[in-house]
Amino acid sequence: MNAHRGLAVICWALGDSEGARHHQTQQYADRPVETLPFLGTGEPVPLVVLMSAEVGNLPWPALVDNRVFSTTIVAVEYFETDRALPPHRLILNAIGDADVCGPALERAQALVRQTSAQVINAPAAVLATGRISNAERLGRLPGVITPRMVRLPRAVLAGADGAAAIHWHEIAFPLLLRSAGFHMGQHFVRVEAPDGLAAASAALPGEELLVMEYLDARGADGQARKCRVMSIGGRLYPLHLAISPDWKVHYFSAAMADSSEHQREEAAFLTDMPGVLGDKAVRALEEVAKTLGLDYAGIDFSLGRGGEILLFEANATMRIHPPGPEPQWNYRRASVNRALEAAHQMLCDRASSPAATGRAA
């Protein structure tokens, strides 16, 4: 049956939402609850993970130690909200993408109302982290610059009046277009001028598209930079700095592996984030994390010329991805391990807190 889960993900990536939902129904309609093997030797701590049957979930397994926790997964779209949750001492809400998981997050809200156990990443807090909502509220914080952003029908953008519709919202070319719910650069393009808008819009999936102001993250060397900092349990953990000649910066495609100079720059960021970014940017990151109100989140940004942060994304979907085994990445391992250990410890601490309970309230 797990094949349907994989097929649903493939259909979604191809823009086939109807096919994705068909496979989701096949996977979860009769089995919305799944208990994973416990690999520890002591008494297991029961954990319930709330997830969406669709996309937009936090890649949570790396955060949960299966030698400590006995994990039960609940696909919320197919789990009745008046049904008691499986036994648990802690809830991990793994539904992370507010732009495509609104209904799932609302169902998750209804489910967590029945428990007095602590909830990691409360659904209400995640619901507030859509891209447009984040751009508006986080852009008001001192030291934070966010892009102008609007959601428009793809048919309008692909038509004769597309450029005029964008001009009305005061977004200039070059600009960025993306389909909601996709990450790692999927269905995300830069449009240089109005004459390229129709073709770019027509090629993207979804009835609506996000139109985003382009924030120039290039340094004096012409290379674009993107930093990722994790916010875990109220503390900031630098995770990586990616440097690329392309505007669309992701670590897996950045110009890092073949540049010792870029690796030295990243190492400096990982070992002395305040010294590299400056007080203004660090204070801004702290305010972003506080405003998000999430127990676990990632913040993607670049450093502006005035010491402010250019905020690209901040939400609960971001992965802590360990580096490859090659010795050249040894300088990254301590930072990655610190972030993972912070997540592991946070879950253990919350599960043993006085408010934790072994059953639904």
Give an overview in words.
This protein has helices at residues 2-13, 17-28, 102-112, 123-127, 131-138, 154-157, 162-168, 197-202, 260-271, 273-277, 279-292, 330-351, and strands spanning 33-35, 45-51, 69-75, 90-93, 118-120, 144-145, 149-153, 175-178, 188-191, 208-213, 224-232, 235-244, 296-303, 309-315. The longest helix is centred in the last third of the chain and has 22 residues, at 330-351. The protein has twelve helices and 14 strands. The chain has a five-stranded mixed sheet with strand order 1-3-2-4-5. A five-stranded mixed sheet has the order 6-14-13-11-12. Strands 7-10-8-9 form a four-stranded antiparallel sheet. With 361 residues, it is α/β, with parallel strands linked by helices. Helices cover 33% and strands 22% of the residues. The chain has three domains: 32-126, no CATH class; 131-143 and 217-336, D-amino Acid Aminotransferase, Chain A, domain 1; 148-213, Dna Ligase, domain 1.
Question: How is the secondary structure organized here?
Answer:
Blueprint: H1 2-13, H2 17-28, E1 33-35, E2 45-51, E3 69-75, E4 90-93, H3 102-112, E5 118-120, H4 123-127, H5 131-138, E6 144-145, E7 149-153, H6 154-157, H7 162-168, E8 175-178, E9 188-191, H8 197-202, E10 208-213, E11 224-232, E12 235-244, H9 260-271, H10 273-277, H11 279-292, E13 296-303, E14 309-315, H12 330-351
Parallel strand pairs: 2-3, 2-4, 4-5, 6-14
Antiparallel strand pairs: 1-3, 7-10, 8-9, 8-10, 11-12, 11-13, 13-14
Q: What is the tally of beta strands?
A: 14
Q: List the uncertain runs.
A: none
The rough form would be described as globular
Q: Could you give the distance between the termini?
A: 32 Å
Task: Specify the CATH architecture of the largest domain.
Answer: 2-Layer Sandwich
